[in-house]
Amino acid sequence: MTDKVALAFSGGLDTTVCVPLLKEEYGYDEVVAVTVDVGQPADEFTEAQETADALGLDIHVVDAKEEFASLALDAVRANATYQGYPLGTALARPVIASAILSIAEEESCTGIAHGCTGKGNDQLRFEAVWRDSDLEVIAPVRELGLTREWEKEYAAERDLPVEGGSGGDYSIDTNLWSRSVEGKELEEPSHVPGEEIYEWTDAPGGETEEITIEFEQGYPVALNGEALAPVELIETLNDLAGSYGVGRTDAMEDRMLGLKVRENYEHPAATTLLDAHAGLEDLVLTKEERSFKTTVDDEWAEKGYQGLVDGPLMGALDAFIAETNERVTGTVTVRFEGGQARVVGRESPYAVYSAEAASFNTEDVSGGIEQADATGVAKYHGFQERLANHTIEAAKQSEGVTATDGGAAEDTPKRPALGEESPLSGTDVDETADEWEEQ
Ligand code: ARG
How many contiguous H segments (helices) and E segments (strands) does the chain have? Predict the structure, then answer.
């Protein structure tokens, strides 16, 4: 029986050198290359195919775009970003890993391999999925301690088909949700990137455009009144918002292993959908829901970044998000302007908003509440702060007196006696407040 190993294959330098290494160093007879489509540009597939042909390798191409797009839209409901980055690479990894595992099992492989280094996040995200199987998990680049220079020399010696690719020596990862660029001069955080690193976004200019996005239960379903399926919606918005320079992030990112790295990202559709969704939540959620949801959202983003989208915590977070987003239905108007996707209008049948109540032109609030009812609230508002400030001031003064008296230093400041100058005396809070101000 031949020993087969499934390899996450992109046709790039790392995964290309893995092909002979899996045979020579790990003793496998056959490499089953798998490329998973999560919305990479077409030339990446051509490149992968050409490299595979030159290596005499068959590649399995698995289309996971829809599955990935649906996870990306879950991320929209969770307002998910990690240190400013909408998680394109991170969320794609579990989807890719599962697709490769399925092929590995179908093909009766005994091993499964990736070309990630030992410094990044992707090794962890892939292996979190793969280590649930009985397959031997192999990471040649990490295990053999390979550098890019070594890989280039090795490829040249073996006449392996590697080309620079469109991005030269940058390390680029592109999918439906984001494009990331690392490496070369960008590794120096003070280096200001040139326009040439951007492919999805034009430099923001003076032009503006307004669009509408319709949401149903927190999911975007239509653009300018036209219903679009998730993949199409994301692709259309990447083009449109990208032409206005929307969705650039230059981040100092804290990786899971603790390394801090400089990352540049482009994500026009993600920025537009995240901003629009947040704008609609602002209209329909209560203050309490909004404030608690930021905690849930942060946790979702953290798990998303770690590539752990299938655990019980994520399920519970999703349940909270689904419950609150049941009412996140409506239409948001977004203006592309100055490189931003700015929410400029929103409407929903579930708006927690009463124009009549908030208006400057109506006397009463609603439900029998009159403006004058706020007087009592206004009297109490800030009461504890005033009380605390007064107490502190009085304690300081009495300490000063003790010190000039030459008396022994006291550990505990004296509390002011409950008397006329005490904020607790008297019934008229307003008057007492005036007295303090006069002091
Ligand atoms: N730092 C990001 C992440 O871990 C993206 C890394 C993308 N890789 C690349 N070679 N540019 O999710």
Answer: 15, 14
Which residue shows structure tokens 């918002």?
Answer: 241
Q: Residue 283: helix, strand or coil by DSSP? A: helix
Selected catalytic residue, list 122, 173, 275, 297: 122
Say if residues 197 and 187 touch (Cβ distance below 8 Å): no
Indicate the SS3 state at residue 348: coil
Question: Which tokens in the block code for residue 418?
Answer: 């409950």
**According to the model, what pLDDT value does residue 232 have?**
98
Calculate the CA dihedral of residues 33, 34, 39, 43 and round it to 10 degrees.
Answer: 20
Residue 250 is assigned to a structural domain of this protein: yes
Task: Give catalytic status of residue 364 as yes or no.
Answer: no
CB of 10 shorter than 6 A to ligand 1:
no
- Asked if pLDDT for residue 433 goes beyond 50, the answer is no
Collapsed DSSP state (helix, strand, coil) of residue 234: helix
Beta strands in 160-292 (DSSP E): 171-174, 179-182, 209-216, 219-223, 226-227, 248-254, 260-266
Domain boundaries, position 342: 212-369
Count of the separate structural domains present in the chain: 2
Give the tokens for residue 192: 């200001």
Token reading at 326: 């049941």
Mutational test site, ligand 1, from 44, 81, 83, 122, max ligand atoms within 8 Å of CB: 122
Instruction: Quote the percentage of the chain above a pLDDT of 90.
Output: 82
Pocket test for ligand 1, best of 13, 40, 87, 173 (most atoms within 8 A of CB): 173
DSSP 269: H
How far apart CA 42 and CA 46 sit, in angstroms, is: 7
Asked whether 237 and 206 are in contact (CB, 8 A), the reply is: no
Mean predicted lDDT score pLDDT of the chain? 91
User: Last residue of a domain, which of 169, 188, 204?
Assistant: 169
Residue 408 belongs to some domain of the structure: no
Q: Where are the beta strands (DSSP E) in 111-244?
A: 111-113, 136-138, 171-174, 179-182, 209-216, 219-223, 226-227
- Residue from 259, 314, 318, 309 nearest 93 by CA: 309
Q: Is residue 8 part of a domain?
A: yes
Which DSSP state fits 187? G
Nearest to 351 by CA among 261, 281, 270, 287: 281
Q: Does ligand 1 come within 6 angstroms of the Cβ of 89?
A: yes
Q: What is the DSSP letter of 196?
A: G
* 49: phi then psi, degrees, rounded to nearest 5: -65, -45
Residues of the chain with pLDDT > 70: what percent? 90
Tokens linked to 350: 């579930």
